[in-house]
Amino acid sequence: MSIRLRLTLWYTAILSATLLLLGLGLYLFLHYIYYDNLKSEIQQQAGGVASRIKPQLNTLGQYSLIPNIRDLPKTNNVIYQVTNLVTGEVISLPDAEQTGMKIPDVTDEKVKCILNGQCQFEKVSIQGYSFMVYYVPLVQQYTGNVLGIMQAAYSIEQYESLLALLRLVLTVIGLISVLIAASVGWFLARKALRPIEQVIAATNRIENGVDLDNRIEYNGPNDEIGELTQTINGMLGRLQNAYTELEDAYGAQRRFVSDASHELRTPLTTIRGNMELLEKMWKQSALTSGEQDNAKMELTLEAMHDISGEAERMSRLVNDLLSLARADAGFQMTKDEVELQPLLDEIARKAQLLPKTAEWIVGQTKAAEGVYVHGNEDYLRQLLFIFLENAFKYTEQGNVRLDTLRHGGQIGIRIEDTGIGMDKSEIPLIFERFYRADPSRGRKSGTGLGLSIAKWIIDEHQGSVEVKTRKDEGTTFIIWLPIAAEWSSKTPQARDNSLRPRNQV
After folding, report:
1. How far apart are CA 186 and CA 9, in angstroms?
2. Where residue 191 falls among pLDDT bands split at 50, 70, 90?
3. How much is the average pLDDT of 63-85?
4. SS3 for 415?
5. For residue 504, pLDDT beyond 50
6. Mind giving me the DSSP string for 110-167?
C-alpha cells in the first residue's frame, strides 16, 4: 500500500469518525430535547384532565370513572382512554369506533409497573401511527385506593418524521463530505508526494544508466523533501568519487597484471629454454667425463631441473593471471559453432600424455555426436584440461573418467574421479581465486586459479557446472553447455534454462 493511499485513508477515517461523532451527538441532543419537552407537555395536559375525573357511585355500589368531554383539551392528535380497574370498563375519548384509534388495554403487569412509578411513558403503534402513551393512576381521594388508569396517547408522527429526516440529512451530508474529503485528500497527498516521485524517478534513471554524474533536480521549498534531495545528491557525489577511485584502482590493477604477465612470459620462456639447452649440454659432457665430474654434473642437472620446474610453474601462473586480467577487463572471446565430438576425441587422446598415476577411462560420448555449441574452441579446450589436470592431480589411485550426457537442450560433459574429494561446504568456495581445499594445501602444487578461469569460461559460454563430491571417495564435475545446433539439422535448439539440473553453480 502506497504512502499516498495510506495518508488518504487515514485522513478519510479521521474525518468520518469526526462527522459520525458530531452527527450522532446532534441527533441524540435533538431527540432528547424534543421528547423531553413532549413528555413535559403530556404530563401537564394529562394531569389536568385526570384531576377533573371524579369517581361516582353507580346503582350497583361501584365507582364509575367517566371523564367530562368538555374538560378535554381541543387537540386532534390526543386520544384518552380510562380503564376502571374495579369494573373492568374501558372508555375511549374520542370514541374508538368513530376514529378507529384504540389504545392497547392495560395489563396487570403494566398496572404493577405503573403503580411502582416505572412505566409512565411508552411508545406504541396504533393503526400504523406512532404515539407516546402517558399512564396516570386514578386514586380515590379519601381512601387512597387506585380505581383506574388513564392513558393519554399523543401522536408523535411529526417528531418521528422530523428525526427521520434529520437522520437522512446527516447520513447524506456525511457520505458526501467523506467522498469530497477523500478526493481532496488524494489530490493533496499526490501533490505533496510528487517531489518524492520525482526523486524516485531520477534515482531510477541514475541506477539504470549507471551515470553518477546526474543529480536530482528539485525546485521546491527547503522542507523535509528538499533536505532529502540534498542528502541524496551529496551521497551520489560521494559515491561518484568512490566509484571513480575504485575504477582507477581496478584499472591500474588490471593494467599491472596484464603488463606484468606479458613482461614475465618472455624471461620465463628464455629461462626455460636456456635450462633445457644447458641440460642437454651437460648430459653430453657427462658421457666423456670422469666419476667426480659426473657427481658435479648430477648436482648441476638437479639444480637445473628445479629451476626449470619453478620457471614452468611461474609460466602457468603468469598465463592464469593473464586470463583473469582479460576476464576482469571485460574481454570478449570470439565465438563460433564448435563441433563437440572431435574436440572431445582430441582431449581424450592428449589426456593420456598428462602426468598421472590414476587410470584414464574414456566412457560413452555418443551424446555429443553431431552436437554443436556456440563458443570458442581454444577456451573450451583449456576448460576441459583444467578439470582433467585437477582430477589427475588429486587422484593418486583409482581412475578418472570422461563421458557425456544430455538433458533437454543442453549437453553435459562429465569428468569423474575417485580421488580425495572434499566437504560439501567447500563447493561454493572452490571457484574463488587462490582458494584450495584444506586437505590439498601443501600436498599438491598449484596456484588455486584454475577453477576460477574455468568458471569464467563457463559463464562466457552461458553454461553452468554441477558438482558432486564426497570426502575420500571422489568428485564429479558436469559441465552443462547449451546446444546451438545438431549435425542432422544444423538448426538452433531452444535453450530451456528451466531444465538445468539442481546443485548448479
Report:
1. 9
2. confident
3. 66
4. strand
5. no
6. HHHHHHTT--SEEEEEETTEEEEEEEEEEE-TTT--EEEEEEEEEE-HHHHHHHHHHH
